[in-house]
Amino acid sequence: MTMVGADLSASVGQFVIRAEVAEYFNQQLSFVGYRSAPQLRNQTLALIGIDWYPGNDWTLMAQYCHTYTDGGTALQGCYRNAGMATANISKALLRNTLKLSAYGRFDCANDGAFFIRFNGDYQLTDDIALTLGYDWFRADAGMFAMYKDNSEIWVKVHFGF
Fold first, then answer.
1. DSSP 66-107
2. Confidence class of residue 72 from pLDDT cuts 50, 70 and 90?
3. Contact, 18 vs 47, CB < 8 A?
4. CB distance 75 to 30 below 8 Å
5. Is the dihedral of CA 75, 7, 100, 122 positive or negative?
6. pTM of the shown model
């Protein structure tokens, strides 16, 4: 794989502004048929994001990533232009032993398709952490469609030594 890219990160007060761009040359994207040759295309990826740290253990983040694929409409399951937005909000409580957060990914190419994870992480001791969460999927097409029936509540116990 051949690629070239650049990134930027700048701190402005309580904010961090991030940007990246990359060009992938002759990226193997998919097979049109079982015995056909790989489809090679150039891809351009660009990302812009902003992080806000307003104090009191709050964090808010948002970013948008756009992918442009040369000849993308001729490939199976590949859009010429595709976008993905993400957002995250978190708050630490109880002397940073409890962290509540919500993280979402939004498929801009497929109207209304998203994945959102809500979770609470509690550091019981230095070695034991308990996490309770809910994953919410909604999609009729696109990258989240195969998971549309997988919304679930989950529990995780982490023991480190």
1. EEEETTGGGSTT--SEEEEEEEEEEEEETTTTEEEEEEEEEE
2. low
3. yes
4. yes
5. positive
6. 0.82
